[in-house]
Amino acid sequence: MHELLTFNNEKLLRQALTHRSYVNEHPGEEHNERLEFLGDAILNFLSGEYLYELHPEKGEDELTRRRSALVDEKQLAKFAIEVGLDLRIRLGQGAILDGGYNNPNLLSSTFEAVIGAYYRDKNCNIALLRPIVEKLFASVPENIVVSRSNVDSKNRLQEWVQSSGNTTPPKYVTRQIGGQSHTPIFESDVFEVVNGKEIWRGKGQGRNKKDAEKAAAENALDNL
Q1: Per-residue model confidence as pLDDT tens digits over 124-179
Q2: Residues making up the binding site for Mg(2+)
Q3: Catalytic pick from 73, 112, 192, 218?
Q4: Dihedral sign, Cα of residue 176, residue 181, residue 184, residue 190
Q5: pTM, whole model, 2 decimals?
Q6: Which residues of this UniProt protein bind Mg(2+) (predicted)?
Q7: 112 catalytic residue (yes or no)
Q8: Would you list which residues are annotated within the binding site?
């Protein structure tokens, strides 16, 4: 078993592996969405720290693009499979029939939840989590990081905004507009903030918040 799945509190690990679709069929269980939120924040921090130390010659824009490539849905789904989460996710029958065990969105979300749960299980000692996560980051080939970092629409939109002298990052307003609990549909609007005023730039949809925001950024770039 992968070291990331070694917990003192097995209940916490079980919660991290539990998708909302499972809870819908098994009342009394706890789903992993709050842990997912925490894990997302931790991964963004650790990936930023990792890249900051690894590439002292890189500037902010390049580091931001590389960070996005390390923690995007596709890469986190691969990490999830690498540590064995695809065999352990607790899903409802509907999600299973829809191929949930191979769904990149569910895999990446569960990986984030496990990261958050591991952090909590170790008394919020990030030093115990850092070497495990950095080992995963280091396993991603450099050429893959570079190729992904060059196509991230959110980063390209932010660069466009900054090129006009605006230091305020774009603002995304994202909400779920439909779908089932295991196959949600999100919509995002992106605004450029100029002197405190929000200027609408684009709209997009996706199966998770990240994809919806990327689609909105792509739409904004097309409009611009």
Answers
A1: 999 999 999 999 999 998 877 776 666 678 888 888 888 878 889 999 999 999 87
A2: 36, 109, 112
A3: 112
A4: positive
A5: 0.72
A6: 36, 109, 112
A7: yes
A8: 36, 109, 112
